[in-house]
Amino acid sequence: MQMLATLSRAGFAAVLLLATASQAAPVRRFVTEPFAPYNFEQQGRAAGPMVDLLKAACERLQWQCTIEVLPWRRALGQAERGEVDGIFALLETPQRRAQYRFTAPLIDARYTLFSRSGQSFVYSGRDSLQGREIGVYGPSGSSAALAELSQGVALNSHIEPDNLTVLKKLIGGRYGEQGLAFMNESVALYLLREHKLAGLQAAGTVREFGYSIALVKQRVSEADAKALDEALQANCRSGRNAELIRAYALPAAACAAPH
């Protein structure tokens, strides 16, 4: 009887330990899209620099984090309905702040205009876009940025289902002889290289920005969002983030000052 009681107490202690560990390591679900070179699927798993940065921060916090790569509209829909804890890579905007808590930017990026090779166009401000036909992927941060840029300018934007379609249509002259593409520069260069496309040239940087991880407000408290942000920035200051990003040849964002 004494042995059974001892075993019973041991079993209870093990259950209590597992329950405590479970409480200490919350499961957080994140979604992203196929958006190389930032996020992509590799051998059925999420991969890319944003994925690596998030995983490293989750390890630091001892959180159990799952990351799923989905088509963008499906991923965004799940985030908007509060079915997941976070989504990335996301550009912070005033409209999105109503629904999400954003980490500090993690990877620097820029929006660039591309033209067909041999064209003389050079971007010199929004007025230089007057009368232009511009292809852009959307709905996305890119299309929102172009819409903001084009306020007060008479241009015709073509919203396409993906960035590759934008590049192919521009090369094929589908936006006219003077057509342009508005795109994340690193994404454009990646697609041109991967698909062996030629006939385009950069025509000017429009805007520099940084990609963040967005936490869904209805699922993630301000305290937990702050904890994730602080873990990401601690990894940044230790050099861990730069080490993880280096393999992808992308620019790491500057570390935010400690709170």
From TrEMBL:
<protein>
    <submittedName>
        <fullName>Transporter substrate-binding domain-containing protein</fullName>
    </submittedName>
</protein>
<dbReference type="InterPro" id="IPR001638">
    <property type="entry name" value="Solute-binding_3/MltF_N"/>
</dbReference>
<feature type="signal peptide">
    <location>
        <begin position="1"/>
        <end position="24"/>
    </location>
</feature>
<feature type="domain" description="Solute-binding protein family 3/N-terminal">
    <location>
        <begin position="26"/>
        <end position="252"/>
    </location>
</feature>
<dbReference type="Pfam" id="PF00497">
    <property type="entry name" value="SBP_bac_3"/>
</dbReference>
<keyword id="KW-0732">Signal</keyword>
